[in-house]
Design goal:
single chain, alpha+beta, Elongation Factor Tu (Ef-tu), domain 3, 2 domains, 6-stranded antiparallel β-barrel, 4-stranded antiparallel beta sheet, YaeB_N_sf, transferase, methyltransferase activity, tRNA-Thr(GGU) m(6)t(6)A37 methyltransferase TsaA
């Protein structure tokens, strides 16, 4: 089988200042807008290209001793984090401690200075720790989700609502809530409680705020 090569464009580089003991990602100016929305304290997934392992010989290595220890039995590279792989892609989960211009200051990682950064993705518990979510991905109405501030509200697909006739409201998971990287689900009963709590919060708003909300087009508080 023949494979056609495809192009990967680095969006930045890993930078290490050993004197200051700092590690940061330097984003190229043309990708600066892609940083919008990232905040200090966010957890992100870094996808790097281990250029030091990008040789024909190392790409052909399919089994390694885990952690480079010959005492460990050989394993296929797909079962390890070895830099020797058919495509030398590396994956890290790190916290953004500080953002300064086009720099993302992160935890120390064992990647070399000037390692190309292929991509950066926000850490989402629902995707990266799927065992924590009781609603299966195929049942989540992703396109029907809404971002409200930093909260992502994802309903369950409507074709599953008929299960309420067979499952009690306190057992039926109706909604996924993502707050930053954290994910939780709400049962139908908890959803009703949340709606009641939101109504109470709205009722407690100053009259002036309510009046302004009512005058906004398309709003009917």
């Amino acid at each position: 089988m023949e494979f056609e090569p495809f192009k990967i464009v680095p969006v930045g580089y890993v930078r290490k200042n050993e004197e200051l003991q700092e590690t940061f990602i330097e984003i190229f100016p043309e990708f600066r807008e892609a940083m919008e929305g990232l905040r200090e304290g966010d957890w992100v997934k870094l996808i790097l290209w281990f250029h030091g392992s990008d040789t024909p010989e190392r790409r052909r290595v399919l089994k390694v001793h885990p952690h480079g220890n010959p005492k460990n039995p050989l394993r296929g590279v797909f079962a390890t984090r070895s830099p020797y792989r058919p495509n030398p892609v590396a994956l890290y989960t790190v916290r953004v401690h500080r953002i300064a211009g086009n720099r993302l200051y992160i935890d120390w990682i064992d990647a070399m200075d000037e390692t190309p950064v292929v991509d950066i993705k926000i850490f989402v518990e629902r995707y990266d720790c799927p065992n924590e979510v009781t609603i299966e991905e195929r049942e989540a109405h992703i396109r029907g989700g809404r971002m409200i501030g930093e909260v992502n509200v994802i309903p369950r697909k409507s074709e599953h609502l008929d299960e309420l006739e067979e499952v009690s409201p306190e057992e039926y998971d109706a909604l996924i809530l993502e707050i930053g990287p954290k994910t939780t689900t709400l049962t139908a009963e908890e959803l009703v409680e949340l709606i009641d709590a939101m109504r109470e919060a709205y009722d407690a708003l100053p009259v002036e705020i309510k009046d302004r909300l009512r005058t906004r087009e398309g709003r009917s508080p």
